[in-house]
Amino acid sequence: MLTPTSPSTCSLLGDKMLSGLLLALSVVGSFAGADARKMMTKSEMHARQVEAAKRFERTPRAAPAAPPVKNITFTNPKASQFYVDGTTIPEVNFDVGPSWAGLLPISADPNETRELFFWFFPPGPEGSLDDLIFWTNGGPGCSSLEGFLQENGPFQWGVGTAQPIVNVNSWTNLSSVLWVEQPVGTGFSQGKPNITNEVDLAAQLVGFMEQFLEVFSELKGKKLYITGESYAGAYVPYIADFIYENPLAANLNLSLQGIWIGDPVLGWDVVQAQIPVVDFVHKYENVFAFNETFMAELDAIAVECNYAGYYEKFATYPPAGLLPLPGKSTEADRGCDVWDTVFDAALIKNPAFNIYRIFDTFPILWDVLGFPGSFPQTQLSPLYFDRADVKAAIHAPANVDWTECSNINVFPRGDASLPSSFTVLPNVIEKSVRSVIAHGLADFILIAEGARIVIQNMTWNGLQGFQTPIANDSFIVDGVGSLGTAHTERGLTFLEVELSGHMIPQYSPLAAFQSMAFLMGFRPTP
């Protein structure tokens, strides 16, 4: 037995100490090497960020030409009263080119008091002169000027941005674009709302379009694409169906080709919000940061309300039959409103929680339109489109207190129409060359898995739902790689966009632009 003081013990201790010292020096050296590799200067980090950002820079569809905008000459003298000088738009320190904006009535009746506000831009240097994109936001009652300024317009003033910038992914680089604040009661639009359903809305919008084309008659005969997001999942299919099927639209003289709807209302609330919400929270557990006890409570509600396992059981490829409701209500049975339970809990953990993009945290970035997240918040008054100089520049009525989403109920007695997936959407898909439904995967107010369920319950072109599964990593964005999923069957393309919130042209503009180019036949794949 060796004692601590024996020569052999000292020798052994010495060997161990030497080995330990060498090991420590080796470890220190390894960490020092790691630090040397990881530490970089701010300029080096910035250079890497710049290089990464280039991956999202779109390659022009055609070589830029002069002038920067393909101007259209309108022969009707009335068009001149709507002309907007692209060098005089407040806060925009560059020329955005010619455009036309103002109010036009929804009918030819000389006593018509209802008018919709529009802003029309001709195509940019890459854009087609043969096409016309119509854009509407949702709500109901939310302004399409939000889409114009923060999503797909020729200049962009996004949340948290110091000043307007050129939007390289503007849809004017595809064709002419017409943004319309509709229905009556939205934004600058004038008159007393009286619609009761989506057919009423479509009739009024088509009436407006007829008046618009009388003034801007050079746009007659163009190929038309009707687009929008959110509650426009109701608007767009009903408008398209009205154009396809109603004799009142015969005088429109536009060739409707297809539709694009982003994060749309397509079916029942229980399907698009309640059924998928607990799975959604599990997918993003580190974002919601709920404790295990609360997660167990959510799981128990999902089981009790027949939400748990619903997608796996019923949304099969192909579906086995019509998909059932999980309970008796199209919204949520008593005790089963788990979406609101999650939302309330999310606000406790993160008061800046944004239902339109779940990744947002403090600080809440400022928004010139006063709606930076889940709730309206005016951080600078007046809002951009409520400024007198802006109203004057775009021929908007000076006496309107503009807000992004109207305080007026645009459906005074509610919207009596059924969701479009049960009524007109299948017919629109069948009549269109292409139709695109796109969904941001970071959207909480409407959840992508719910849209999948709606599609699997819908029958178009002779079959119910998609017949083959949606492949992972199948949406390839040029220069970036996989950014979600893409699936096409029988004229319908469904896209899911990773990292994007509710407003895809805002949160993932290149993906939105690419999908629109596909809709318009400018590329073979989304």
From TrEMBL:
Taxonomic classification: Eukaryota, Fungi, Dikarya, Basidiomycota, Agaricomycotina
E.C. number(s) listed in UniProt: 3.4.16.-
Organism name: Mycena sanguinolenta
GO terms for MF: serine-type carboxypeptidase activity
SUPFAM superfamilies, per database record: alpha/beta-Hydrolases (SSF53474)
Family: Belongs to the peptidase S10 family.
GO biological process, one term: proteolysis
Pfam families named in the record: Peptidase_S10 (PF00450)
Keyword line: Carboxypeptidase, Glycoprotein, Hydrolase, Protease, Signal
Highest taxon above the source species: Eukaryota
Entry annotated with the keyword Lyase: no
Protein name, per record: Carboxypeptidase
Signal sequence range: 1-36
